[in-house]
């Protein structure tokens, strides 16, 4: 394990020691030794926090808060209570599959956008969805069928429901995740409003080896970058702002915050033990 305090460095005076960091439940904030990037980034959060208010801010200290949450759950002595907290996180993630941003496609045709290369919104959405589905259904959940909502049939057709086998396979996969991967999944899923993108990010970056792979398939690239993931879950916003323009201090702020959250999810699950 790595003590975050050992990595705190003062740029003017070199390394300096301070009191070890602790979680809200007073457990030592110890990061697995296989996650040095995470430990260094948490140390940097504290190095750049100049006031107590900043140190308590979830916006300024996201990795500190998420890592603390994981450690506090791990140290929960009551097995039933601990499993209840973990199950709540699993259910929270799985609910996003029902309204996944990537799976809701606009009706065919419609207006084309010059900013999108003279393409319709539907074409842009399909371009973002296809590689994610191909990766997940060949490398993570081989053979499963994932249905998208066709905008030609309405906003939410009554017939829309993922196959039972698909739901069972995905649920088993989520249940098999360790806490670091599970919290990373929750972070990426909520940030992009897409369970599929959350699964794509975690399965590609996790050091736990989450990819199963279908026989005969070749993985061209396992990791998905922050920028690529952010663009995929923001297709509609990008298309609309390309048509009508951005709202200052709204779209631009949300754009950067999305990337910050996706990046923090990657740091939670990746490590030097990457398999």
UniProtKB/TrEMBL annotation:
It holds the Pfam family ATP12. InterPro entries: ATP12_ATP_synth-F1-assembly (IPR011419), ATP12_ortho_dom_sf (IPR023335). GO terms for biological process: mitochondrial proton-transporting ATP synthase complex assembly. It comes from the Eukaryota. SUPFAM superfamilies: ATP12-like. GO terms for cellular component: mitochondrion. This is ATP12-domain-containing protein. It comes from Ascobolus immersus RN42.
